[in-house]
């Protein structure tokens, strides 16, 4: 028998070679002994898997070293709880961060295999939807890069959100089968499995020692949360952290008695119900069943994560009183907010603490990132649903609420109206549990994600909670990882920058500022423009392959890629496209700038207007792209199934970045940062991080238009009159008439009537109010475009000045000011 002391004396494995010949030999070995294929008959997916396994070995060496170092040093760990992690493909990311891109490419080339082709076979992990999930992925990579010990916790979705296809211009949702061939990057952890309960009753019992009563929750249903781990490699592999995703399994996979009695479907009831928990991201919650499934998902992954965190802590330390000193838990939006009540349950019911010390530990351990001011996105659950599904947690929510309300009235002197505002229970109509308020009161830090958003949080959704706890709200402006969003997705530009200013920016993105000096260098500008042209040709080829649309890479590529939502105002962009179409046909004598309008993004399956906007974009594209009167000066392309891999092609190809949300409604945005880093100019409102981008790049190097957040609020308060605005703008009026009358929908002339009528009636998102300013600014964009030297000078300045928006900077701020973790 080998003892622990003997194991401790065993030598560590030697670091694996980065020599191309050694790599090639290992790939053949894995192909043979792990996959069971001879190289002569191996298929492309076999080469992909063998290559990943060889790369993974090098990652594992550093992964184990990172884990061991954290344990031995007693360092504080950060736990990032997020319902989404939009990690994209991992192979190129890992190879690049290991600094082995040339070696792996050479090894595969010696075997007659192209690395780019192999890497492209890896499916995008369907673990997220948009900005929230991509931010979480960037943060995980940056935590490893800046040496913050961290775990990410989420759900291992079998299908994720959905795979988007178009049928006659309509969005069609299909399952995203990204796990169909397995995932060679992940490790199943059979030993990390936790029981998760739902429903049932709560009993009070004597604890048998002190004579006090304690609560015992007896769930009616139980499932098992099983862990799958994926290593997350930081830049230069300084640290490798862990993304732990949970899958649901039944306690009993099959009810054998029922099966033997002939009830073959009923015998699998528990198995099917458990598996439904982790099949789909964001099940439609317009129905009671959909709401229940979504709440079950949120509690499932929150409870599993917290049980895992407490187990790990108690393995290393004697008790839970030191939890806030060794553990920082970040709630990424309200999805994991039920964790506040769950940690209280675990501390009180399982570990025997009293309420007050448990509440003190909970508040010191949690911090919460708010990502939205939209009321519908600040989740709340009907009290009957919450109480039926989580009866013990409902008791704890009431107990926490009593503590908060007593403090509000006695210490802060809050009256009835303010007390109602800070309460965890919304009494206005159907009683609901407010998850945003629960996350707020249960955290020591609440951060916004841009300066404007943070200020608006204090003034709007959390104004009274801010008054109650004025020290808690702070700002942490979002960032992106420059490894994926420059080095990997735009290798031509990366090489040019490296040649011009050296390597310092690879470790400190703010060193890109040295590029400012090259904005006036004609040779550098020409090379910068040539790289942009190559990237545009790559996107043009993708569109030709997928959609059969032929594009001219010399045209301006004007791109809006976002989740489809009315506040993001794809509709404003489409209406201006229609107006431009009219102008080009009406004034053929003018020198119009050739332009391609790109759209991509998914609409929630139950969001009628968002899906209608997708259909409108496709209808407009069909008419414009087939009209010879336009002479190819304007084309429109809505590219289906937007994901990380598609973004990695579109972002480097953009000339113009559309960031045109209604001011005050976009918390931050990160697409704006990716585009600017890759040399696109921004057209946008003063919303989210656009405000800070303007401060960084300068007013002359960004196109800002439209109402400010304060002006939007004032218009809404005073009474917005869109009809008068429409009637006063001939371009807007003509474009809306064309859309509503069926010019773009000959098969159904009333298709867009209600959509346009909404703009006449109320126009909550200020599309009409901002249209003229937007159209005018677009013509200013045209005027700059024809001056190629001026255009590329400004694009170079954008790339040079947005290094501050690195997620490394953001994570260092979190680590220093909120988590107290890391170096």
Automatic annotation (TrEMBL):
Keywords: Carbohydrate metabolism, Glycosyltransferase, Pyridoxal phosphate, Transferase. The keyword Glycosyltransferase applies. Gene3D superfamilies: Glycogen Phosphorylase B. SUPFAM superfamilies: UDP-Glycosyltransferase/glycogen phosphorylase. Its EC number is 2.4.1.1. Signal peptide: none annotated. NCBIfam families: P_ylase (TIGR02093). PANTHER family: GLYCOGEN PHOSPHORYLASE, GLYCOGEN PHOSPHORYLASE, LIVER FORM. This is Alpha-1,4 glucan phosphorylase. It comes from Hoeflea algicola.
């Amino acid at each position: 028998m080998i003892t622990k002391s003997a194991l401790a004396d065993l030598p560590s494995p030697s670091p694996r070679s980065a020599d191309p010949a050694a790599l090639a030999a290992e790939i053949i070995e894995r192909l043979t002994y792990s996959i069971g294929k001879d190289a002569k008959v191996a298929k492309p997916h076999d080469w992909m898997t063998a290559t990943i396994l060889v790369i993974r070995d090098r990652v594992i060496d550093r992964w184990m070293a990172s884990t061991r170092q954290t344990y031995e040093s007693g360092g504080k760990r950060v736990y990032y709880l997020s319902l989404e992690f939009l990690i994209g493909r991992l192979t190129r990311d890992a190879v690049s961060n290991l600094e082995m891109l040339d070696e792996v490419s050479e090894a595969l080339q010696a075997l007659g295999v192209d690395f780019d082709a192999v890497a492209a076979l890896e499916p995008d992990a369907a673990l997220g939807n948009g900005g929230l999930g991509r931010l979480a992925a960037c943060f995980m990579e940056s935590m490893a890069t800046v040496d913050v010990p961290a775990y990410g916790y989420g759900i291992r979705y079998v299908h994720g959100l959905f795979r988007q296809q178009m049928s006659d211009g309509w969005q069609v949702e299909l399952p995203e089968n990204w796990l169909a061939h397995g995932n060679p990057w992940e490790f199943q952890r059979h030993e990390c499995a936790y029981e998760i309960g739902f429903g049932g009753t709560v009993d009070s019992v004597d604890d048998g020692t002190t004579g006090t009563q304690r609560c015992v929750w007896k769930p009616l249903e139980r499932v098992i949360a099983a862990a799958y781990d994926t290593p997350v490699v930081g830049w230069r592999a300084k640290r490798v952290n862990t993304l732990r995703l949970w899958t649901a399994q039944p306690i009993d996979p099959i009810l054998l008695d029922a099966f033997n009695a002939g009830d073959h479907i009923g015998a699998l009831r528990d198995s099917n119900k458990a598996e439904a928990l982790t099949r789909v991201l964001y099940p439609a919650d317009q129905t009671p069943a959909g709401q229940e499934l979504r709440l079950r998902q949120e509690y499932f992954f929150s409870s599993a994560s917290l049980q895992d965190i407490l187990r790990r802590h108690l393995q290393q330390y004697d008790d839970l009183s030191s939890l806030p000193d060794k553990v920082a838990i970040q709630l990424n939006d309200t999805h994991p907010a039920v964790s506040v009540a769950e940690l209280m349950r675990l501390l009180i019911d399982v570990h025997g603490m009293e309420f007050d010390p448990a509440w003190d530990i909970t508040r010191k351990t949690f911090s919460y990132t708010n990502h939205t001011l939209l009321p519908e996105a600040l989740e709340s659950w009907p009290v009957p649903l919450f109480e039926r599904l989580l009866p013990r947690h409902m008791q704890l929510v009431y107990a926490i609420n009593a503590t908060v309300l007593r403090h509000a009235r006695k210490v802060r002197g809050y009256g009835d109206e303010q007390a109602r505002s800070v309460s965890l229970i919304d009494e206005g109509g159907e009683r609901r549990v407010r998850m945003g308020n629960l996350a707020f009161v249960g955290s020591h830090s609440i951060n916004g994600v841009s300066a404007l958003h943070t200020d608006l949080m204090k003034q709007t959704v959390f104004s009274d909670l801010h008054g109650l706890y004025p020290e808690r709200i702070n700002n942490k402006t979002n960032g992106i990882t420059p490894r994926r969003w420059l080095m990997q997705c735009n290798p031509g530009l990366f090489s040019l920058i490296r040649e011009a200013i050296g390597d310092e920016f690879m470790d400190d993105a703010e060193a890109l500022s040295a590029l400012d000096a090259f904005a006036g260098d004609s040779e550098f500008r020409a090379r910068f423009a040539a790289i942009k042209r190559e990237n545009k040709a790559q996107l043009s080829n993708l569109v030709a392959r997928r959609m059969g649309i032929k594009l001219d890479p010399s045209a301006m590529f004007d791109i809006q890629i976002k989740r489809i939502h009315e506040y993001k105002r794809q509709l404003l962009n489409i209406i201006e496209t229609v107006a431009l179409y009219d102008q080009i046909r009406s004034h053929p004598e003018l020198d119009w700038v050739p332009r391609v309008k790109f759209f991509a993004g998914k609409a929630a399956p139950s969001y009628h207007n968002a899906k209608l906007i997708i259909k409108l974009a496709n209808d407009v594209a069909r008419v414009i792209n087939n009209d010879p009167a336009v002479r190819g000066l304007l084309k429109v392309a809505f590219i289906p199934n937007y994901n990380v891999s598609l973004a990695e092609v579109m972002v480097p190809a953009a000339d113009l970045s559309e960031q045109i949300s209604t001011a005050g409604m976009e918390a931050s945005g990160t697409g704006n940062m990716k585009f600017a880093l890759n040399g696109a100019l921004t057209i946008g409102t003063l919303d989210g991080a656009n405000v800070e981008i303007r401060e960084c790049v300068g007013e002359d190097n960004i196109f800002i238009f439209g109402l400010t957040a304060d002006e939007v609020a004032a218009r809404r308060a005073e009474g917005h009159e869109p009809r008068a605005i429409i009637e006063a703008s001939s371009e807007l009026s003509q474009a809306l008439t064309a859309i509503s009358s069926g010019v773009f929908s000959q098969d159904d002339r009333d298709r867009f009537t209600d959509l346009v009528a909404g703009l006449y009636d109320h126009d909550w998102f200020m599309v009409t109010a901002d249209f003229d300013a937007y159209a005018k600014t677009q013509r200013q964009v045209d005027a700059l475009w024809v001056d190629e030297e001026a255009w590329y000078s400004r694009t170079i300045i954008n790339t040079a000045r947005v290094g501050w928006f690195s997620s490394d900077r953001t994570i260092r701020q979190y680590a220093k000011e909120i988590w107290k973790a890391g170096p």
